[in-house]
Amino acid sequence: MKGEFDNIPIVDLSALVASATPEARAETVAALKSALETSGFAYLSGHGVSEDLVEKMRQMNMAFHDLPMEEKMALKINEFHRGYMPMSSSTIVTSSVAKVTKPNRSESLMVMHDVPEDASYAGEPMHGPNQFPASLPEVEETALAYMREMTGLGERIAEALAEALGLERDWFAKYFDTPTLFLRLLHYPEQPDEEELFGSAPHTDYGFITLLKQDNVGGLEVRNKRGDWIPAPPIEGTFVMNVGDILSKWSNGRFVSTPHRVRNLSRKDRYSQPFFYDPSMRALVECPEAMLEAGETAQMEPVLYGDYLLERLNKNYDYRKKAS
What we know:
Layout: E1 10-12, H1 22-38, E2 41-45, H2 51-65, H3 69-73, E3 83-85, E4 107-112, H4 137-164, E5 180-188, E6 200-203, E7 209-214, E8 220-223, E9 229-231, E10 239-243, H5 245-250, E11 260-262, E12 270-278, E13 284-285, E14 303-304, H6 305-316, H7 318-323
Helix pairs in contact: 1-4, 2-4
């Protein structure tokens, strides 16, 4: 039953490869479907992303946040949503699950999809240059390699999700011809146990799917239908995947976009690296008729993904409010 869960299942994705038997693939698709219909979250094992690369990305995340503030501020986030976001510079006012008044207690480096200079869409919203520290060239090298691997994983998952919805395996592909990709290298310092203060306030994600690698500190919690906050501690060798609002709408509510939050009460620094795999900015998102059952109607109005995304970013990030 949607929202009724007390733990987050582990789903082994190793059968989402060409060499797997149809039976093994169908079993994996069914397990993923069950998890996303119930909790909207799953731990993913057998994902095929190099653990060495994952660990190197974590080390680069920590190294970036150890840089002097002056060097980080030189990379302050640009109009294309790329660069450094200082501590407490985002407040999730669009949250549908809580009235959020205090900024998130975190800082981050936002990296997005690479945009070739000669691309027809270069310079459009969200399509501009990334910013990396010159003193740590490995951050750029590792981040771009990591995003390539994570994009491949996102593609495999999108195929499985299409099958879970009764669609052709490649149904989503046309909406991801130039995907909107975010890699956020987050640092959560130890926070005081203060009412309504969070590393990340209760919210649902905007987009398609989120693939999170967290360190061993913990602090992520997921809310079930009863209003209980269920811990989502790190499990070695897995990513935490969750459904975003756009995928929930696209699936006509079959997949649930579940509220979650981060509270770092560990007395340690916490580092995480969520990767957001989203459609092209120009993608027209509308519920597929082929998925609807007899008598069922689409719950969402068709929307351009780029319009939908920009509305949320403009409300939640200080630098965009000041520019508008």
